[in-house]
Amino acid sequence: MDEKSKTFASILLMVTGMAIVGVIDNFVKFIAIEIGLWQFHFLRSLIAVPVIVLFGLAVGWKLKPKRIWPVLGRNMFLASAMFIYFGSLGFFPISAVAAGLFTAPVLVMLIDAVWSRRAIGPIRLMTALAGFVGTLMVLNPEVGGLSWANLIPVIAGLMYAFGNVATRKWCEGESAVALLWSYMFLMLIFGGIGILYFYFIPGDQNNYLTRAWVWPSFQVWIWIIIQAIFSLVGLGFIMKAYLIGEVTYVSIFEYSMLIFASITAWLLFGEMLGIVGLCGIGIIIGTGILITIRSRTSPTV
Question: What gap in Å lies between CA 76 and CA 298, rounded to an integer?
Fold first, then answer.
């Protein structure tokens, strides 16, 4: 396969992976009606981890991390990001939550600059500010007025950004599969801890975040299985895209998830972004692309 074909294939894989993730994450609303956040992550990971490990052993993938503690540290950041992200999906429109998560490229730039003691040029700094304004434009009209609570999805973006920087700084040489299954295994442990906590110290059973264990209905089991399997498929496409494609071009197409998630939310639930929100998504995508390109070519501009 020549370079042009690899680039096209990687873009197709990335868009397909992001489309899968953007669509299936909408269905968390159906899961959140019955079971809590901690049980959702526990059951989803309980399905996903054996699938990854057994399939990995069958095809000869490298499953053992080379360095346990750096991988654990990286996974702690990403697990925190996903708990906040999926927790927010129980209360906020997916377009607002995804917008908060996709502040990550802007935050990665800032965190990496501090971590590496590298100056940020004025162009990238202004671009970062524009990206944050775009996020506020999505959060404000969708949730009914800006407040501190509305900024919770941005914390997911912050943790996701720390996880991405830690992947680069701490986990060089680790296999993508080792990072994936160990991350899902940590989500399994965290979910189990949450279940035990709310078993002994019951919270509000009507609250998605504090709901103790309940036996899911058949329909919810189906949604959990779909979420687990298709999450792995989507992540598999995304990992493959990064393996065969040029990172600068491939990473730009991560933003297609915002589009797929918003369209699915509109079709399923009638959650339609207003003009301000649509402009905000456009700004987020534009600034993310610009930062990604300039970070590769002119890191101090």
Answer: 31
pLDDT tens-digit series, residues 148-178? 666 788 888 889 888 878 887 888 788 878 8
CA dist 259 and 265 (Å) reads 10
For the chain, give every domain's residue range. Answer: 3-297
Give dist(CA 24, CA 223) in Å, integer.
9
Would you state the structure tokens that stand for residue 165, as one six-digit string? 């920087």
pLDDT for the residue 297: 56
| Single-letter amino acid code for the residue at 211 | R
How far, in Å, CA of 185 to CA of 173, rounded? Answer: 20
Report the predicted TM-score, pTM, of the whole model to 2 decimal places.
0.83
